[in-house]
Task: inverse folding
């Protein structure tokens, strides 16, 4: 009865560790597992849209640019890459802009001049765009 129940479940648990509890090597421990009892192939991992770029490390500048792009997305300045539509979320935009502001305060006097200039200019630009949207003015050409 108990074996019938285990067979209905469709899987078995096997100890495939290389060593026993006493530290001795087990025979056949390195063998590859065979096919599943049902004969079905193992499921394939879901495809990735973009593989990670291992050769490109994240720098402070790329981090700031990523946050500013996120803020521009929430301000409705660039389309959502998934839905291809312009979506405006001023609360989320304010939060990302505030994060950049906190980052600016916490890194004061610890940045290279190019990084400091990038952060200051991005922060200024994003704040001006946010204020313009909150006040309801949409100046053309700016």
Result:
């Amino acid at each position: 009865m108990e074996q019938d129940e285990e067979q209905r479940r469709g899987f078995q648990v096997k100890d495939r560790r290389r060593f026993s509890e006493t530290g001795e090597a087990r025979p056949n421990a390195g063998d590859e597992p065979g096919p599943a009892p049902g004969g079905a192939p193992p499921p394939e991992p879901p495809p990735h849209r973009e593989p990670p770029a291992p050769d490109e490390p994240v720098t402070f500048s790329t981090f700031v640019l990523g946050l500013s792009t996120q803020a521009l997305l929430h301000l409705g300045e660039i389309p959502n890459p998934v839905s291809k539509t312009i979506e405006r979320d001023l609360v989320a935009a304010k939060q990302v802009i505030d994060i950049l502001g906190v980052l600016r305060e916490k890194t004061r006097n610890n940045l290279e001049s190019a990084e400091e200039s990038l952060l200051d200019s991005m922060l200024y630009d994003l704040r001006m765009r946010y204020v313009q949207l909150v006040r309801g003015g949409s100046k053309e050409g700016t």
User: Anything to note?
Assistant: The chain has a mean pLDDT of 78. The helical segments are 2-9, 60-75, 90-106, 113-134. The chain has four helices and no strands.
